[in-house]
Amino acid sequence: MSERKRWNFVPATRTSSLVILLVGVCVLLSTSYSLADGVAVLPVAAVVLAVATIALAVAGLVRARPEAD
């Protein structure tokens, strides 16, 4: 059987993991500022998705394959 999996969410390279990590941190910071005014549903959902994005990027950094030259 093939080594490929059907649902492969973890980024393959360190560069893509770093970009995803940067996006997740930016979304988390901007959303946390909007939560200072009060708790609403959409900012809370954005915080949860930002944390999941950061976790995905960290997993990609840990399991990244070496980049081709």
Output the keywords.
64% helix; elongated; 69 residues; 0% strand; mainly alpha
List the helices and strands and how they pair.
Blueprint lengths: L13 H22 L5 H22 L7
Helix pairs in contact: 1-2
Describe the 3D structure:
The protein is an all-alpha fold and 69 residues long. 64% of the residues lie in helices and 0% in strands. The chain has two helices and no strands. It is elongated and about 45 Å long. 9% of the residues are buried.
> Are there runs of 5+ residues with pLDDT below 50, and where?
none
The ordered H/E elements are HH
Taking all Cα atoms into account, the compactness measure Rg is 15 Å
Overall geometric form: elongated
- Total DSSP E strands: 0
Q: Share of helix among residues?
A: 55-70%
* Average pLDDT: 80
* Main sheet overview: none
Write a compact overview of the structure shown.
The chain is mainly alpha-helical and 69 residues long. Helices cover 64% and strands 0% of the residues. The protein contains two helices and no strands.
